[in-house]
Amino acid sequence: MVQVIWMVLSVLALFSVGYLGYSRYLAQFVELDDDRDTPAHKYEDGQEYVPAKKPVLLGHHYSSIAGGAPIVGPITAGVVWGWVPALLWIAIGNPLLGSVHDFVSLSSSLRHEGKSIGYIIGEYVGERGKNMLLWFAFLTIILVVAVFALVVAIVFNAFPQAATASLVYIALAFVFGVYLYQLNLPFLLGTVIFVTGVFGGVFAGIEYPLALFPAGADASYPAGTTVLFSGGQWIPGASSLGVNTAAWVPIIILYGGLASALPVWMLLQPRDYLSSFLLYTGVGGALLAIIVGTVFGSASQPLEIQLAAYKGFMGATGTPLFPLLFITIACGTISGFHALVSSGTTAKQLNKETDARTIGYGGMLGEGLLATVALATVAIVAPDVGGGIGLALPTFASGGGIILTSFGIPTSFGGPFMALVLVSFLLTSTDTAVRLGRYMVEEIVGTDASAAGEVAKNRYANAAIQGVPAYILITSGSWLTLWQLFGGANQLLAALALLTATVWLANWDDSKQLISTGVPMALMGTMTILGLGWLAFHDNLYVKFIQSSPAEMTTVQTLSAVTQMVLALVLIGLALSLVRMGYRNIQKVRGGRGAAVADGGEPGSD
User: 366 near 102, Cβ under 8 Å?
Assistant: First the structure.
C-alpha cells in the first residue's frame, strides 16, 4: 500500500524546482525592477491603491485565490479517475501553467497602471476585444460569487463552529485595520496580538457554535449550539438547500457586497493577513502531520492511500479523462479567476515589483499545496463514487481530521478546524470576487455622469448587480447543473489571460520568447473548448434530448439544458474570436508593422 507521504514529497520537490529555478527566470524575463514605481505608489488613494507589506499582500492574495475549488476539484477527480492522474496534473501543471499564469497576469497589470486583463488586451487588439473579455470575466465572476457563497453556507450549516469563528476574526480584522493604518502602531506586536485572537476565535467557535435555524431532520448540530430562529420554510431555496443553509446564503452575499465597498485598509488587507495564519497553519500543518504521522506512526490510523491509483479512461462514472480532468481540477493547477485577482486587487497593492515573484508565482504554488492536501484527504478516506460539493466538504474535514491526529489532535477538534480553514479561504474569495466584478463594470460601462455611469461607480448598486443574479442562481437550484459550466468558463478565462500576456510580450519586444505563455494558452484553450463541447453536445444535447425523451423532462430541466448548451457555445465563440484578434496582433507586431514598447508598459507610455 502506497503511503500518502510520497504524494506530498513529489509535489514539494517539483514545486521547489519551479520556484527556485523557473520563477527566477520569469522574474528576469519580465524585467522586474524595484526602481520603478508600482501603481500602488503612483496612484495611492487610500481606497483601492494602497501599498501593502509583502506578507500582508501575500496573505490577501493567497486567501483570495484559494477558495473551495482547489478542494472540490482534486477530490472529485481523485474519486472519478484515481489519484495518479489528479496528482500528475497538480504537480506538473501548477509550476508550468498555473504559477506562470498568475505571475504574468500580475506583471502585465503592473506595467499597465494596475488595470485588469480586459483593459490590457484592449490596448493591443481594440475596444471590442476589451469589452468581450470583460463581459466574459464578469459572467464568470457571477458564477464564482454564487458557488463560493453557497459553499460557505454549506460549511456553516455542517460546522456551526465555523460561523462563530468567522464572526470573531472579521471583527478582529476591523480593529487591526484601525490599529495599523489609523493609529500607526507596531506591525509585529499587532501581528502577535491579533493572530492570537484569531486562534482564540477558533476555540470560541468550538465552544459556542452558532446556527440561524434548527438542523434538518437528517442532520444534527454539536452540543451547545446557539440557534437564533425557528421555522424558516419561507426562505427561498429552503426546500432544496435546507433552511439553515438557505438562510446563510443572502447574509454571505450581503457581506461580500458590503466588504467589497469598504476601503482595502479597513477590512480586506488586515482580514486576509490575519486569516492567512489560519490558512498556513491548516495547509502547512496537514502537510507536516503527514510526514510526522508516517515517520513516527503517530496517526490514529496508517496514513496510506486507500484510493485506486487509476480507474480507467472513462473513470468510475463513465466520464472521459481527456479533456474533462483539465477542467475538473481548475484551482490548484490553473485558474482564470486568479488572473482577475492578480490584475485586480493585488496589482493595486504591490509595494515593490520584485514582490510579484513571491506573491504571483509562489502564491499559486501555495494553492497547489492546498490541492495536494485535499487529494490526500480523499486518498485516506476513499469514499464511494461521487463528486462535487456534497462529497468534497465532509471528506476534506474528516480526512484532514485524521491527518491531524499525527499531532495528538483528536478528530473532534481536527475536523471542525479544517472546516474553519476552508471557510477562511471562501469568505475572502467571495468579497474579493465582488470587488473585482465592480472594477469590470466600471471599465465596461464607464464612470461618467450618465445614469449607467452613476450606477457603475456606486459601490453598493454595483455589488447588487452581481449579488442578485448570484442569489437567484443559487435558490433556483440550477447551481448544481452549472458547476461544470463554471469550471469550463474559469479555465477558458485562464487561456484568455495567457493570451493577453502573450500579446503583451509580443508588443513589448521582438526578442521576447512567447513559449512560456503561448504553449500553456494553446493547451488550456484546446482542453477547455473540447470540455465545453462535451458538456454542450454530449451531456445535454445527446443525453437529454437524443438518448432520452424530452417529454420526460420538466420545463425547468429543459430550460436548464438549453441554457447550458447556449452558454457553452457562447463562451467558445467569444474565446475563439479573442484568440483570432490576439493572433492577428502578434502577426502584425512580429511582422514589423507595429511599435514595441521599451519598458513593457502601455503603448506610447515612453
Answer: no
What mean pLDDT is predicted for residues 274-302? 82
Question: What is the pLDDT, as a whole number, of residue 133?
Answer: 81
Q: Which of 259, 251, 338 is nearest to 69 (CA)?
A: 338
Distance (Å, rounded) from C-alpha 203 to C-alpha 164? 10
In terms of DSSP H, where are the helices of 268-341?
A: 268-296, 321-328, 336-341
512 pLDDT higher than 50: yes
Angle of CA points 400, 213, 417, to nearest 5°: 15
Cell of 27: 522574474
- Who's near 458: CB < 8 A, 6+ residues apart? none
Best CA proximity match to 59, nearest among 379, 280, 357, 351:
280
Q: Give the pairing type, strands 210-211 and 226-227.
A: parallel
The number of helices, as runs of H, and strands, as runs of E, in the chain is 25, 2
Amino acid letter, 433: A
Backbone angles phi, psi at 227, to 5 degrees: -110, 120
Q: Which of 366, 399, 152 is nearest to 251 (CA)?
A: 152
365 backbone φψ class: left, alpha, beta (φ>0; ψ -120 to 50): alpha
Q: How many CB atoms lie within 10 A of CB 387?
A: 23
Task: Report CA-CA distances (Å) from 347 to 60, 117, 177, 257, 326.
Answer: 12, 11, 20, 21, 27
CA atoms in the 13 A half-sphere facing the CB of 298: 15
CB atoms within 10 A of CB 266: 18
Report the C-alpha gap between 373 and 4 in whole angstroms. 10
Share of residues in the chain with pLDDT > 90 (%): 30
**Band of residue 606 on the pLDDT scale cut at 50, 70, 90:** very low
Buried b vs exposed e over 586-598: b needs ≥16 C-beta within 10 Å?
Answer: beebeeeebeebe
pLDDT at 546: 84
Whether 421 contacts 285, CB under 8 Å: no
* pLDDT classification of 30: cutoffs 50, 70, 90: very high
> How far is residue 561 from each of residues 152, 531, 545, 550, measured CA to CA in Å?
26, 16, 9, 11
Residues 6+ apart with CB under 8 A from 366: 62, 66, 283
Least confident segment among 153-157, 218-222, 511-515: 218-222
- Average pLDDT, integer, range 545-566: 74
**Peptide linkage before 323 cis (omega within 30 of 0):** yes
Residue with cell 450618465: 450
Tell me the one-letter amino acid at 443: E
Residue 599 is predicted with a pLDDT of 61
The whole-angstrom separation of Cα 32 and Cα 518 is 20
What angle is formed at CA 443 by the lines to CA 508 and CA 432, rounded to 5 degrees? 95
pLDDT computed for residue 243 by the predictor: 92
- The better pLDDT of the pair 48, 311 is held by 311
Question: Grid coordinates in use for 170?
Answer: 472579521
In this structure, the chain runs to a length of 606
Do residues 13 and 363 make contact, with C-beta atoms less than 8 angstroms apart? no
Mean predicted confidence (pLDDT) in 466-495: 78
Cα–Cα distance, 525 to 580 (Å, whole number):
12
Residue 123: which residues within 8 A CB-CB, separation 6 or more?
112, 130, 602, 603
Evaluate whether 118 touches 137 at the Cβ level (below 8 Å): yes
Q: Name, of 112-121, 218-227, 249-258, 433-442, the range with top average pLDDT.
A: 249-258
